[in-house]
Write a structure and sequence with these properties.
Layout (H helix, E strand, L loop, with lengths): L2 E4 L9 H17 L2 E6 L9 H14 L5 E4 L4 H13 L3 E5 L5 E5 L5 E6 L3 E6 L6 E4 L7 H11 L4 E5 L6 H11 L5 E5 L2 E3 L14 H7 L3 H10 L13 H7 L10 E3 L1 H13 L3 H14 L10 H11 L8 H5 L12 H7 L5 H12 L6 H15 L3 H13 L7 H8 L1 H9 L5
Parallel strand pairs: 1-2, 2-3, 9-10, 11-12
Antiparallel strand pairs: 4-5, 5-8, 6-7
Helix pairs in contact: 1-8, 4-5, 7-9, 10-11, 14-15, 14-18, 15-17, 16-18
Length: 431
């Protein structure tokens, strides 16, 4: 049976690169009907923190990666010592004492050619004469990364190791330890790096942010998964949107791209918008309620749920991130809109008192204040005045919402209501 593992270190939050590695392990496992093993590599006692463990587990749950088994390296120190002692007894490792008299166990590296048939990159050759002797157990008694990985992967029967290609340099060192311990070698697959749009290594400025931060910013988990998948793989039919159920059926690890991927936040925003368009408004409203409560826009226990749902439906096709709703739709919840100074300067710097008064009168006379009738009243007015729609439509939008972006003006006015729409228009009438 296929068994893969994702092995994060709880010395920080789960970032975008780790999320992609988890995705490809999980996806391969699902496509093969295998087991997904989660191993927390917490041997660094000083830097490993429980809050990071919790964040990693929560992020993996949010992404939908259910693990079959969970291990902590900090609970397995006796296993590492057991195998290190075995290598000592077989004379392939030796003890090195520190000035303080503490002992480290070192593996003696002998010159040889190492060949690894990588599932993504093909055959890779290494010369072990370029590798120095490898520390197995440090003088403080903790295992080194490469040694603990080998022991764990062997004891956990890991069949495929899928990880970033920054680990390629670790592969020959681990192969030597596998061979020294007589363990069967797993198959390796090294994913290409994710680069920033500037061509450099991914940084916080170019997208190297924690998965939990993307969640807080208002990205849907399914959209983020879709984007992470397409950074290094596609089904080959020029589609940009694919759900994980279909991806599992089509996925082949050998079709993963060999070249580095570029993380583009604008592309992620586009994909997230596509998912928001078809998202359940009830689900989006549930997400938004605590954000709106925090802003004092609604009361947790007494807000108008149908009205909120109508606003969600009005905005969801336009939002790059669901959190943008809070800023884009604030004028629906405030008594007076927060005016964009640049928008005021651009669209309300001339006297439109006559036009605003006439439009307000037409709105007042509407018995059915819906988008269709509001638009009809607007069209009749500009025809009567002999002006183009753009002369009035942008100033009216700014006057009643304070913004230049958002849903269509007529739908906006309908949701805002007759009283507020008229009141905000007349505020800009110069007596």
């Amino acid at each position: 049976m296929v068994r893969v593992r994702f092995a994060p270190s709880p010395t920080g939050n789960l970032h975008i690169g780790g999320g992609r590695t988890a995705l490809f392990n999980w996806l391969f496992c699902q496509s093969q009907g295998g087991k997904f093993i989660l191993r927390i590599e917490d041997t660094d006692k000083e830097r490993s923190k429980k809050e990071f463990v919790d964040e990693i587990l929560n992020s993996l749950n949010w992404l939908g990666f259910a693990w079959d088994e969970l291990y902590y390296q900090s609970e397995r120190f006796d296993r590492y010592r057991l195998y290190a002692d075995k290598l000592l007894k077989s004379k392939v490792a030796y003890i090195e004492k520190s000035p303080e008299g503490k002992e480290a166990i070192i593996y003696k590296v002998l010159p040889k050619k190492i060949i690894v048939n990588d599932l993504i990159r093909g055959q890779i050759e290494f010369d072990s004469s370029l590798i120095k002797d490898q520390v197995l157990i440090k003088s403080d008694g903790t295992p080194t990364y490469n040694f603990a990985c080998v022991v764990d992967d062997a004891e956990m029967n890991i069949t495929h190791i899928i990880r970033g290609d920054d680990h390629i340099s670790n592969t020959p060192k681990q192969v030597l330890i596998y061979e020294a311990l007589g363990f069967p070698l797993p198959l390796f697959a090294h994913l290409p790096l994710i680069m920033g749009v500037d061509g450099g290594r991914l940084s916080k400025r170019t997208g190297a942010t924690a998965i939990s931060d993307y969640r807080k910013m208002g990205y849907l988990s399914e959209a983020l998964l879709n984007y992470l998948l397409y950074l290094s793989w596609s089904p080959g039919d020029n589609r940009e949107l694919i759900n994980m159920v279909e991806a599992i059926k089509l996925f082949d690890i050998k079709n993963v791209n060999k070249t580095a991927a570029t993380f583009d936040i604008k592309k992620l925003d586009w994909i997230n918008n596509q998912y928001l368009k078809s998202a359940d408004p009830e689900k989006l409203a549930n997400y938004l309620v605590p954000l709106l409560v925090e802003k004092n826009y609604i009361n947790q226990d007494s807000y108008d749920r149908p009205y909120l749902l109508s606003l969600v439906k009005l905005f969801q096709a336009r939002l790059p991130r669901i959190n943008d709703f809070v800023d884009w739709a604030d004028f629906f919840f405030l008594e007076e809109p927060l005016m964009d100074a640049e928008a005021v300067k651009k669209y309300l710097n001339i006297d439109l008192s006559k036009e605003f008064k006439l439009f307000a009168q037409r709105l007042e006379n509407l018995n059915n204040f819906d988008a269709i009738n509001i638009e009809a009243a607007f069209r009749e007015l500009i025809a009567e005045l002999g002006i183009e729609a753009k002369i009035l439509i942008h100033p009216i939008r700014v006057a009643i919402s304070g913004k230049t972006i958002g849903p269509g003006l007529f739908e906006l006015a309908h949701c805002l209501g007759k009283e507020k729409s008229i009141k905000r228009l007349l505020k800009w009438v110069r007596e």
